[in-house]
Amino acid sequence: MKTLKHALSTVLLACCVAAQTLFGAREIVCNVSGNTGTTETGIITRICETAAITLRYALVQTGTAPGSQFIVNTAATLPLGVVMDEPAVGDSAAIQLLGSKSGTMKMVASGVITAGALVYTDAAGKVSATAAAGSYHVGRALTAAGADGDLIEVLHCFPMAVSTPTVANATADRTVTAAEANGEIFVSNLGASGAVTFALPAATVGMRVSAVVRAAQELRLDPNGSETIALPSSGVQGAAGKYLTADAVGENVELICLTAATWDAVGSTGTWTAQG
Questions:
Q1: CA-based Rg of the chain, rounded to a whole angstrom?
Q2: d(C-alpha 224, C-alpha 263), whole Å
Q3: What is the mean pLDDT of the chain?
Q4: pTM above the 0.70 mark?
Q5: Are strands 262-269 and 228-229 parallel, antiparallel or unpaired?
């Protein structure tokens, strides 16, 4: 029996050696993740830069040295996360990263917030239920706040800028800025007693301008320099530098830049014509 067991062991060993020779050595697998330069917990340590933090759980933003410093957030700046302490200038503090840290976060309300409401950045590192222009959406309140300074529990998310379209009713010629077109703008000639020209910015991809005739006067959309605007009825780009015009109440058009230096009409009503 011993002789048989020995023979079987010898055969098994020979098979293992043959398999290793034929297929190569088995790869060694390590279950320890390499985390150099990464943050697995969603919590980082940074240094308070310019002013002491006197409000625990305030939203903060990156400082002058983004990789090492932070300052308290404002209503219209991109937040980094929530500070978990009240550090003095030069002291380190832990910051919970928005959209990265597991679980919920505590935040400080700037006023009344109902449970379930979306929350947005506000002054002094606080959050509000008001989606003000320039603010950032940072999550949804799971608990309510009754007054300024109350702590609430928030189901947080990656910060998302609040986009508020500009509405411009003009009775005289007006220039549409690049910032307005990048955020979307609605223009009209409400109250005008004569022709109104809206001078468009240099067209870059993603810009959007919508126009509606609100007075029975000519409304013109004038491209920048030698840029062009497509005629809504055909989709064909007009001549260089020629404006698009309509003059009957209710006529409207939506222009979007899909290719730099040109405007395409993605929707319209009424009769829009090109400058002759």
A1: 31
A2: 10
A3: 89
A4: no
A5: parallel
